Amino acid sequence: MQTTETQTAAQSVTPRDCILSPIQWRDDTLLLLDQRVLPASEVWLECRNPQDVIDAIQKMVVRGAPAIGIAAAYGAVLAYREQASKASVGASEALRTQLDTLAEARPTAVNLAWAVNEARTLMQNYAWDVLGDALLALAKRIHQDDLAANLLMGESGAEVLGQEGDTPFGVLTHCNTGSLATGGYGTALGVIRSAWSKGLIDQVYADETRPWLQGARLTAWELQKDGIPVVLNTDSAAAWLMANDRVRWVIVGADRIAANGDVANKIGTYSLAVLARHHGIRFMVVAPESTVDMSLMSGKGIEIEQRAQEELTSLAGQRIAPENVEVFNPVFDVTPAELIDVIVTDKGCIFDPDINKMQALFGHA
Ligand code: MRU
Q1: How does pLDDT run across 310-341, given as a tens digit for each residue?
Q2: Residues 16 and 119 in one domain
Q3: What single DSSP character describes residue 304?
Q4: Is 95 in the pocket of ligand 1 (CB under 6 A)?
Q5: 9-47 burial string, b = 16+ CB within 10 Å, else e?
Q6: pLDDT tens-digit map of 13-29
Q7: Is there a single domain that holds both residue 24 and residue 137?
Q8: 202 an active-site residue?
Q9: Any idea what the CATH number is for the domain that residue 162 is in?
Q10: From the CA of 351, how far away is ligand 1's center (Å)?
Q11: Number of domains the chain is built from
């Protein structure tokens, strides 16, 4: 990956203002806004080959389930071009192997495997000579479709929130589910944006989201840019916020939704769902169809990514924990469907999700 000059990412890609476009395809190169250094610096990284994309996904230059899927789709284009430039006999087989490696860059967000599968399908249907163009068209379509899905879910989710009546209320969100995590606008943050523009909510509470601080660094930044009132809180303040009637809904995204409606999302989501149920607060999950995995009967089958112990033992490069301490660092958890009031998707809303309602909307695997 190469670093290019610092530049601003703000770009108007829909009639709405303030949609960031952190993934860009320009001059045969994939440009990614480096989420590791936001909001202090806006740095773009250039990915010129599939290994660059894999590194970017693993190191969290690009993160968030839909964004990872989009980056992987462009990664497939780079993989094809790398093989095509070698013009060797086993190019097709080598591309297949590279796609397998790409799909395994991170395990939990199904959007990654889904996007790579779409690329594999094109390999079956297109001759080698035209495959490159087909893969690029696919990546652009996945990118655009995700933005369109977010705008749709924003409207649907806001409609659900609108049933609460006329008095604006506070909502709590976790991790970053905005433009940075998607093709633009956001899933949970898209609903929050739409609800804010309709005057339905008056305050967003953003969990800081330990240990990677997606909430503190990215969500707070995105909401501030939009002029949406945001209060940053520690993850452990959530129960107290709820007990003090500060929030009426918790609104989160998803990395993988199983056939029974169980939802894998950023670590801490499950705790929020338990707390919300205890306090009589409603719980909304927002995710596009590409996050749904009907091949898994329940969340028990979802692989949960464990990340490096340094994420907990150090803070801003400074060691904070004693040497040799054992570390438990799962970066996702699974919220059981029975704790979820509604899953908002681009195909429709599922209230009190269960396997029958999921299958009615998404079919069988
Ligand atoms: O580890 P991350 O930052 O990739 O995790 C992201 C999340 O958990 C998001 O909530 C999820 O991907 C939904 S983003 C629209």
Answers
A1: 999 999 899 999 999 999 999 999 999 999 99
A2: yes
A3: P
A4: no
A5: beeeeeebebbbbbbebeeeebbbbbbeebeeebbbbbb
A6: 333 554 788 999 998 99
A7: yes
A8: no
A9: 3.40.50.10470
A10: 22
A11: 2
